Amino acid sequence: xxxxxxxxxxxxxxxxxxxxxxxxxxxxxxxxxxxxxxxxxxxxxxxxxxxxxxxxxxxxxxxxxxxxxxxxxxxxxxxxxxxxxxxxxxxxxxxxxxxxxxxxxxxxxxxxxxxxxxxxxxxxxxxxxxxxxxxxxxxxxxxxxxxxxxxxxxxxxxxxxxxxxxxxxxxxxxxxxxxxxxxxxxxxxxxxxxxxxxxxxxxxxxxxxxxxxxxxxxxxxxxxxxxxxxxxxxxxxxxxxxxxxxxxxxxxxxxxxxxxxxxxxxxxxxxxxxxxxxxxxxxxxxxxxxxxxxxxxxxxxxxxxxxxxxxxxxxxxxxxxxxxxxxxxxxxxxxxxxxxxxxxxxxxxxxxxxxxxxxxxxxxxxxxxxxxxxxxxxxxxxxxxxxxxxxxxxxxxxxxxxxxxxxxxxxxxxxxxxxxxxxxxxxxxxxxxxxxxxxxxxxxxxxxxxxxxxxxxxxxxxxxxxxxxxxxxxxxxxxxxxxxxxxxxxxxxxxxxxxxxxxxxxxxxxxxxxxxxxxxxxxxxxxxxxxxxxxxxxxxxxxxxxxxxxxxxxxxxxxxxxxxxxxxxxxxxxxxxxxxxxxxxxxxxxxxxxxxxxxxxxxxxxxxxxxxxxxxxxxxxxxxxxxxxxxxxxxxxxxxxxxxxxxxxxxxxxxxxxxxxxxxxxxxxxxxxxxxxxxxxxxxxxxxxxxxxxxxxxxxxxxxxxxxxxxxxxxxxxxxxxxxxxxxxxxxxxxxxxxxxxxxxxxxxx
Length: 750
Description:
Blueprint: H1 2-17, E1 20-27, H2 37-40, H3 43-51, H4 66-74, E2 78-83, E3 88-94, H5 98-102, E4 107-113, H6 144-147, H7 151-156, E5 165-170, H8 183-187, E6 191-196, H9 210-219, E7 221-222, E8 225-226, E9 234-239, H10 248-262, E10 267-270, H11 290-300, E11 304-308, E12 331-337, E13 342-343, E14 361-364, E15 366-370, E16 376-380, H12 382-399, H13 405-415, H14 434-437, E17 449-453, E18 457-462, E19 473-479, E20 485-493, E21 500-504, E22 513-518, E23 521-526, E24 545-547, E25 566-577, E26 587-588, E27 594-605, E28 610-626, E29 636-655, E30 662-685, E31 688-695, E32 703-713, E33 716-723, E34 740-747
Parallel strand pairs: 5-9, 5-10, 6-9, 10-11, 11-12, 12-14
Antiparallel strand pairs: 1-3, 1-4, 2-3, 7-8, 12-13, 15-16, 17-18, 18-21, 19-20, 19-22, 20-24, 22-23, 25-27, 25-34, 26-28, 27-28, 28-29, 29-30, 30-31, 30-32, 32-33, 33-34
Helix pairs in contact: 9-12, 10-11
């Protein structure tokens, strides 16, 4: 009995760890609640609602029924947070109490929140290859990261975000209360409120330095030059992240949005997101996560959210955007490489899982930022693209305060330098200040882009002008009638004489729009309706161009890595037979008593953190033992059993990764011992050695079973297993051979 208890101890402990989960508990109503918006909302929040014709007495703003809330908390292990907008509380509930909560008459639904942890997404790709910018060539008053927005036009017109309140959600803001880059904010009392959601206190000036760097991209000033455009705005600073990403962080994000609304925010910057640690690619549709629903609700409340697209563009296991960047009513921001003006390699791609345009706009994916302990550095990440745009949004809203949040979002997109062209790596491009400063839109005659056709191709011909001789890149896409892109291309020519791109007609269907962007000019062709001139010049089929990126149609991004719902991989394992719990009559050489197996393992995802699977393996066990059959004369002898194993197991993924991540497996196995041999070596004298091999030993039990546990990281795992069955029947009359085995496993996942 003691052996059984010890063998299952780890399994029981691990299951105990996962027996308490965090849930959203949704209520049916808000009966018996009252609400006074004038005592609840900040004056700025009331002004925003009045200006955008938003009701001050919307039921979503009413408090939760306190009686409902208390009854659920009494059945919970921990109260995590609540949301007025969605009429729910987030609580930790044991498996035993979960049915009791679900049966409460006022509970509408109970939804589990994924609890898997990983290093926070907001920790961006830092690299020594990105250097600090210098003053040489910078426009007066701004750093180069703002020039791309034509930010000098805002500076010249004294537009700095004055009157706009910006909420920033991040992992901490160390040094903001001391750093010279934020002196103007402190001296003018522009940091209105702060709140640390994990610790439930006002202090946010510590913890992760990411928030400090992000804030400097909105409102920092470096040696008299603006690092962000909104230096005149007011700020709300919220700490919503910790060093790992448990489920609570999405609860804190949800709470922070409501807190920002209550305290009068106009703009929210969120350089955060949640992706492969708890979701699948197909979940990025703006509907699955509560943070996306909250981001959309923020727009309904008159706020505009700017959210980083994510840094997974070079991660084959994901590549697409993160949530809440998948929300429909927000500005999702991708990154550009300042050196090439192309998509920076790590910036995540759109579209959303349901085919909507993302990113909406882009900005530089590397920026000069403030260091928490003083000074400045340069850091890459869409985490910094987003606040650069947030500062632009504040300035744009200052120029047109009559706009609603959704109207401003549309205007920001129209101001971007690629508009009306768009694709899933650049969106509409980089927003431009001239759109908001100059009231009349500039028009341009279409003269550099022409279309002709042959039987099999449509030729896109580019004629550069004198000012654009060195620009040999064009963008083009094929848009389906439903607004989604069929495909898009980023084409670069090697010389000016060959700037003709032949587009295969098989890639276009009637009703599609072919849209081409080149040197601030966009030209459209509606296939099947517009007349395309025949090509009479007998163009060659070979042109000197290269296509930088061709997205594959219906690309199955979730087929990679840990995100696959099914996983198959071979592995090898090598282990040692270990001493038994009690003594054995056999004299064992445990260092030489080994096991070697080769197998194939399959797993299927039940959810992001829990998998079920099975494995099949073949190999052998070696028991180095003296006096196996009562002989005292043999110098060396061992028993070798050849066996086939079939294992059923459950996997708890503790920390995800592009490989297998950090995981713990527990399972049960069965074995068929299809052969056994007793090998003996007798030393008669120093020069004479006699060997003998005996096979198919009588009394052997061919069917065996036991339990296993594995703890691994990616390709390497440590395992232990215990065999419950006996190798021999009672006729052998000997104490059983050791049953415990420990070892190492090396996996080769596809």
